[in-house]
Amino acid sequence: MGKLLAINISKERGTEKREVPQAELVADYGIMGDAHAGKWHRQVSLLSAEKIDAFRARGAQIDNGAFGENLIISGFDFKNLPLGTRFCIGDAILEMTQIGKQCHSHCAIYKRMGECIMPKEGVFAVVIRGGQIHTGDEVKLIPANIYASIKDRPADSRCELLTVTEGAHAGEKALYIDGRIRVASGSAWADEINDNDNSIVMFKQQIGSRPRLIICGGGHVSAALVRMASLLAFDIWVIEDRPLFADNAKRQGADHVICGDYKKTLARLEPQADDYYVCMTRGHRFDMECLTEIFRKPYAYVGMMGSKKRAAIVKKDLEESGFSRENISGLHSPIGLAIGGQTPEEIALSVISEIVKCKNERTGCTQVDNEVLDALIEASDEKYILCTIIKKNGSAPRGVGTQMLVSSDNRIIGTIGGGCAEAEVISQCRRLFRKQEFKCGLMDVSMNTDDAEKEGMVCGGSISVLLEQLG
């Protein structure tokens, strides 16, 4: 347990920070009123009180904030903690993202003392959860958890989870977000990973943020679409200008419902590359308002409900409004896969099927199972084996990146496809739990045509599964 001894902020960069008794930490931003706050990986700087005291003992006359540090905390040697370590201060949570920094110009302290401790001893963090902090607050250390970092990262960032599959470092992981390492598990090798180094065999798992499904309109098909999408990994938004229909969208399970003008609401939404838009308003005018706003943003998918004739009219109107044919060609209309849907539920099924098809073709990987992710975050004393498909051939049912957890007390969380192939992996996990030395290994599972027919399965193919013991 540590203690927060000082809070320092500055309104301009490059200036010494002044001490304040309290401050507001804002999630994915930093300290309110501080010049270094923003949407980047160095939102808050931390420095050990013990390191500052040792520097003062050598004759340095310095005030709190002189190094540019935001928080002075006693009880921790920050630079020797792994990236991803978290600190809880009151209700707020910080996560360490960088150790030290490069100084391009020597500060006044360096010129006076010949040294500055911030480049080596200072660390930087992002704000995972905001809240008020006060001088004198207790600071609790939360050990680094790579899976918590994945789950809590900003919605508009992307990351890769790198797993070494062979050699002395097999099973070690590193998490890269926006080109920077955020978490290294245990060893310094993660800072030196080189994709061209053939001595390190890595499995890269691209972790996409939960994509947003933004539905313009809250009618009967929209309600059915919300119900179906809630079974999948979408963050569901509904925009509807009629209060009665907006309330119904909430009851159907939408994560966010905004009752208001379509165009103004869309204009206020911060765009994300993983946005999937569906226009199913009550009229041509409203669809046009939505589409003219959507086409000004990045998106992964945009579809509009309507007949071929209506789609042709809308595309012509969009072109006359100044949008290019290339831009307009991205509109899916008539919307959905051609399954001959008649009822709201059948039409919604065709729409969500087209969106899932587009999503999987675009990302080229399987989304992390939230149930598996939650279990990995919460895992404590119990032992688990994490089973990840890293290679697939033929018609195996699940894709690369699919994961399953097998616990030492025979609990199974998630699935890598079911059937005999999954049962074989589970049996191997149970055998491996009895081996004290097991850490990580590859398992090839094949279901040829004869075996598949004999077991009554429709899938053949083969998978390579990475088995990693945790805990």
UniProtKB/TrEMBL annotation:
GO terms for molecular function: catalytic activity; molybdenum ion binding; pyridoxal phosphate binding. InterPro entries: MoCF_Sase_C (IPR005302), MoCofactor_Util/Proc (IPR052698), Pyrv_Knase-like_insert_dom_sf (IPR011037), XdhC_CoxI (IPR003777), XdhC_Rossmann_dom (IPR027051). Residues 18-142 form the MOSC domain. This is MOSC domain-containing protein. Gene3D superfamilies: NAD(P)-binding Rossmann-like Domain (3.40.50.720), PK beta-barrel domain-like (2.40.33.20). It comes from Agathobacter rectalis (strain ATCC 33656 / DSM 3377 / JCM 17463 / KCTC 5835 / VPI 0990) (Eubacterium rectale).
